[in-house]
Design goal:
two-stranded antiparallel ribbon, about 350 residues, about 20% strand, about 40% helix, 9-stranded mixed sheet, alpha/beta
Length: about 350
């Protein structure tokens, strides 16, 4: 069994494999490198076979998205730890060792991410994960180093190692045993926010999620779907509702879901007036898809509650209010909350 398997999920990412795979192999530090191909049609498989014979190739029959692709691929890989690595990431020398040291030292740690900086603007944090993710009480995800579309300059302000709510799926180190214990990702998500859902479920079982400021990688972002793509809008809005329905405590389920549905409607009207009618339509379709899945979500919610051993704390303030009304555009400007015993502060000022 490998100690660490680096697993790159690829879908029509030939240009990224050409650009970034050599550095992943160079800086693998003895880990086995896999590419799981999601039925690409751009010649990726032939390119890998001809140019990287040492890379272990897993060919998946259809494009099952991020969730299904990784679930199918990781079922075929035996390792103590996995790194779920996007194909559009440039790694750096020594990026693996600090995170493995954290995982080895803390058996309760289920997942960890490095610090994500933007490949195109390397002085700034990257949208997809920054220096670790959080979730406010309404279910809006944000990061140390990124609130909505505001990306902070990296001054070393988040170079510490500490628990967070979620770790980025762009570069996600996971303890293999826990990944499979939780049943992997929820296939219904297809792509987007599945790692937040998985991290929430892991914490309900008593595990921890961390970020490691000693490890740095650079992420291009938008490699499969650009963030302005209506398909991405649909997935983000639908999956956020999926996640909330599955994981919210019973007393919060109705009021939080109702509030989110109203706020989604407000966002849809705003997008419509901005001329983005396709995104407005995507939000309407996301709500419809959510209602259609209520029955299956109820089954998953019941199973999750039966297996949960603890209630997971979210950030108690509204990040929407803090950002758009109070004008706090930096993570360090957000109101902090007192740490629980033996827990790192929620953020560093």
């Amino acid at each position: 069994m490998d100690r660490l398997a680096i697993v790159i999920l690829n879908y029509n990412g030939l240009s990224f494999l050409e650009r970034f795979l050599p550095s992943v192999i160079t800086h693998a530090d003895g880990a086995t490198v896999y590419v799981a191909d999601n039925a690409s049609a751009d010649g990726s498989v032939a390119f890998l076979s001809q140019n990287f014979p040492t890379v272990r190739l897993i060919e998946l029959p259809t494009n099952a998205g991020y969730t299904g692709g990784y679930n199918q691929a990781l079922a075929q890989i035996e390792a103590h730890y996995y790194v779920l690595l996007n194909s559009d990431i440039a790694v750096t020398p020594g990026w693996i060792a600090p995170i493995l040291a954290l995982l080895d030292a803390n058996p309760a740690m289920a997942a960890c991410q490095p610090k994500l900086l933007a490949y195109q603007q390397p002085t700034h944090f990257e949208y997809a994960g920054g220096a670790g993710g959080y979730l406010d009480f309404l279910g809006y995800a944000f990061c140390r180093g990124r609130l909505f579309d505001t990306l902070e300059i990296d001054h070393g302000q988040y170079d510490d190692n500490q628990p967070v709510f979620w770790a980025s799926g762009a570069c996600l180190f996971v303890r293999a045993r826990v990944f499979h214990e939780l049943g992997g990702f929820d296939d219904a998500f297809f792509a987007h926010q599945e790692e937040v859902d998985w991290c929430w479920r892991a914490q309900q079982r008593g595990y921890q999620i961390w970020t490691c400021g000693e490890s740095v990688i650079y992420h291009v972002g938008g490699g499969t779907l650009h963030k302005s793509n209506p398909r991405k809008t649909f997935l983000n809005y639908r999956n956020s509702l999926f996640m909330l329905y599955k994981n919210l405590p019973g007393s919060e389920l109705v009021p939080i879901l109702f509030t989110r549905l109203v706020l989604d409607g407000v966002a849809g009207v705003k997008l419509l007036f901005q001329g983005h009618w396709r995104d407005t339509l995507a939000i309407i379709q996301a709500h419809g898809a959510f209602y259609q899945q209520i029955a299956s979500l109820r089954v998953k919610r019941r199973a999750g509650q039966q297996q949960a051993t603890t209630t997971v704390r979210r950030y108690p303030h509204s990040v929407v209010w803090q950002y758009f009304i109070s004008g706090r555009h930096l993570f360090s400007q957000l109101p902090a909350i007192p740490p629980l015993p033996n827990e790192a502060p929620y953020h560093a000022h």
